[in-house]
Structures are given as C-alpha cells and as structure tokens.
Amino acid sequence: MVVGVHSGKFTAERVTENIRQAVLRLEVDHPVVNDRHFRIWRAYAVNAWPTLALIDPDGRHVGSHAGEITATLLASTIGAIVADFDSMGKMDRTKLHFQSEVVSQPRGPLAFPGKVLATGGSRLFVSDSNHNRVLSIRVDGLRGQVEEVIGGVAAGFADGEFGEAAFHRPQGLALVGDVLYVADTENHAIRAIDLRSGIVSTVAGTGEQSRGMIRGGLGNTTALNSPWDIISHGGYLYVAMAGSHQIWRLDLASGEIRLHAGAGYESLADGPLTGAFLAQPSGLATDGRYLYFADSESSAIRWADFGAGGDVRTVVGTGLFDFGDVDGGVDSVRLQHPLGLTWYAGKLYVADTYNNKLKVVDPANRTATTFLGTGDAGDRDGDRATFDEPAGVSESQGKLYIADTNNHKIRVAEIATRSVRSLSIQGI
Fold first, then answer.
1. For 372-383, what is each residue's pLDDT tens digit?
2. Do 170 and 82 have their domain in common?
3. Which of 121, 165, 371, 382 could form a Cys-Cys staple with 200, CB 3.0–4.6 A?
4. Is the dihedral of CA 113, 293, 348, 301 positive or negative?
C-alpha cells in the first residue's frame, strides 16, 4: 500500500484544496495526507523531498531512502521483507481498497491547460494538458473557434497524423514557420507539429526519463528530463529542462541537443552559463537580447545570455526557501513558484502561480508589482479578476492570454485597462 505524505514547502502547497487539485491533475490514485505542520515529516526524521519510508507488516519503520528511486531497486528490499514475514506466517494478503476521487469533466472544453501561445495574429495555441492534446484556435475577440485538435484524451507517445498522434501532459509551445514545437513533458520529449502536412514527429527525447546527467547528442537518441517550456531564437530551440534544473539548446538544422545553462544542481547561484545553479526552470521568454526564465523552485526570475561564454543572472529572487507575495524592489520582492512569463514593452509579465496573480517584473529596475489578481483563488472576470494557479501567459496585440490552469480556462486581459474576460471556446 502506498500512502503519500505531502509536507508542502510553499504556503500554497499546504492548503488542502490546492493539494486536491494537484492530486486530480496528476491523477494520483493512492491516498495523500496533508502534513501541513510537518508532524509526520519530523516523526520520520525526513530532511529531503522526496523521501520514501518503508513500514513492515508489524508496523515498524524499517528504513528510508531520500531522493528518487526506481521500482526495480525497491523491489528487492520489499521482496526480502515479504520472504521474512512469510516465514513467520505474518503476511496478510487481504486486498486493501481505496477509492480515489476521479476528476469530473470540467464545464468547458479544457482540462488543466498548462501553456498558451499567442502568435501575433488571430491564432492561439493551447496545451490542453490533461486532455493530452494541443489545440489550434482562431480567435475573434472573446470567441475562439477550434480549427485543429492534435492528439487527444488518452495519454501516449506516438507520432503520425493529428488524429493518431499521442502526447502526455504537453506544456510549452513555440512556433517556427509552419511548425509548432511542443514540450511533451511527461513523455520527456520535444515534438514537432507540421501544421501544413498534418504530421507530428519527435525531434528530441526517447520517451523515457533521463535518470542521470543528460548527455548531449542527436535529439531523437537523447533522453530528456521533464521539458517544461520552449522558445525559439536564432535557429535554436531553447528548452527549460525542469527535471534536471537546466536549460538546453536544440539546433533545428542539425537536430543536435546540447546543454546551454545550469550545472544540474538545484539551487540559486549566478555565474557562467554552465556553472550556475538553477531550480526547476519552467517558463521562458526573450526580448531578443536575453533569455529570461521563471526559476520556479527558487521563486525567481532570471536571465541567461544566448552566446557561449555568457552568464546567468537573477532579476528578482534570493533562494530556494525565500518566497511569498511581496511587491517592491529587489531586496524585498517575493514571488511564489512562478511558472510562466512573456515579454512586452520592456517588461516581463509573470504568471505568479502559487500567488494566483500576474505580476509585472521590470528587469532594468529589478522590481515586481502585482498587475492582476487579488491573491485569492477564484474565477471572477472584470476589473478585480481572480485566478487559480495560472501557469502560462502569452502577449499579443496588447492582450495577455493566460492559461488559468485550475479553472480550466483561457483568460484574456487588456493590458491597458487591466480588464479580464474568459475566452469562449467553440467547436470541440
């Protein structure tokens, strides 16, 4: 029997309803307890996420393992305990029953959308993440007409025509000519959607998660680790590799993928590109000069140079355990697990996910201020709009298109007036 004990690092992760939404989004099918006061954490002398504690049939704690572990490695230990208790006649093989909650169908056509890409015209692309598909939508004001559905509902890893292709919780999107690239997060792959031919192909990743340090090479033979966002610049596709705490670079001409930034250790430390420490980069944006990224676990906004020999520097954010909801200058600013950002008119518009807000970050002055949202989780349009863990944002023609993840919606905000409305999606 598996029991998940959630000892939340972030304040938002200690709210039971937020944990419930995460359990539904990730389709967790074992019981999860909210250890919001870290009582179970202390009782088992835990000091790292994740930690696995093994309890034998007598109810004794027989050991712990800090860090990720595969089922294969764990099986030998469990097998030895089972054999020992079998020899004593103490094994009870009565099936344990736990009825997990099943997410009800959202009222609209989306299920936990993760990222959104506005192309500058009337076309919008949406990662309909929990439906395991990508939607191409023609937008007219607050009406969206679905023109193409790529993939669909059942998770999988398959190339082919739009109706045959399969994804697994896709996230980031980048358009290069007639090709839409997708960070297929839980397939640990980068997929290419040819909008002209109607064919999906894999350009990086093997479908399996890299368990160690990623070695560069040809994209389709290199295992990746939870790519969360992508952006194109200068013939390359830059990949926010959240699982390895790095940013990688895919050469669209040669098909080779190589490390661009991050030493692979989770922390916040500036320095040379490959020597800096990152913490789950999950959102990318650019002004053409710098590559900006939302460094989610450090609640920071940072930038990296594009050129080899460049640096990584922090705009706002101070460390892995420094988070909150505080506007102001660099010394006082606090964000809480931002997942997305977009560049517009000299500023970064940031999906400050766990604060249920959109913030404006000024890289020149190193300030952050609330732009949209009250901080309360909600689903209210208008001048005092509320959001529920927005994860993606993209600007087009003075409007912000926001993936409002837990509300299963795309929200549209007029930057000039700060008025928010929900996009009505038809045709699916």
1. 999 999 999 999
2. no
3. 165
4. positive
CB-hemisphere CA count at 13 Å for 301?
32
End-to-end CA distance of the chain: 39
Question: pLDDT confidence of 206, banded at 50, 70, 90?
Answer: very high
* pTM for this prediction: 0.94
Judge contact between 377 and 325, C-beta under 8 A: no
Task: Tally Cβ neighbours within 10 Å of residue 17.
Answer: 11
* Pair 155, 11 in one domain: no
Read off the pLDDT of residues 219-259 as tens digits, 9 standing for 90 and up: 999 999 999 999 999 999 999 999 999 999 999 999 999 99
The residue to which tokens 């995460």 are assigned:
22
Residues 27 and 162 in one domain: no
Q: Does the pLDDT of residue 105 top 70, yes or no?
A: no
124 in the same domain as 58: no
Query: How high does pLDDT run on average in the chain?
Result: 95
**Nearest one of 217, 255, 219 to 235, comparing CA atoms:** 255
Is it the case that residue 213 has pLDDT exceeding 80?
no
Instruction: Answer yes or no: is 111 within a domain.
Output: no
**Least-confidence region, from 43-47, 215-219, 231-235, 276-280:** 215-219
Q: What are phi and psi of 243, to 5 degrees?
A: -65, -30
Using DSSP, how many helices (H) and how many strands (E) does the chain show? 3, 32
Domain that holds residue 327: 116-426
Q: How many other CB atoms are found less than 10 A from the CB of residue 415?
A: 18
Pairing of strands 399-404, 409-414: antiparallel
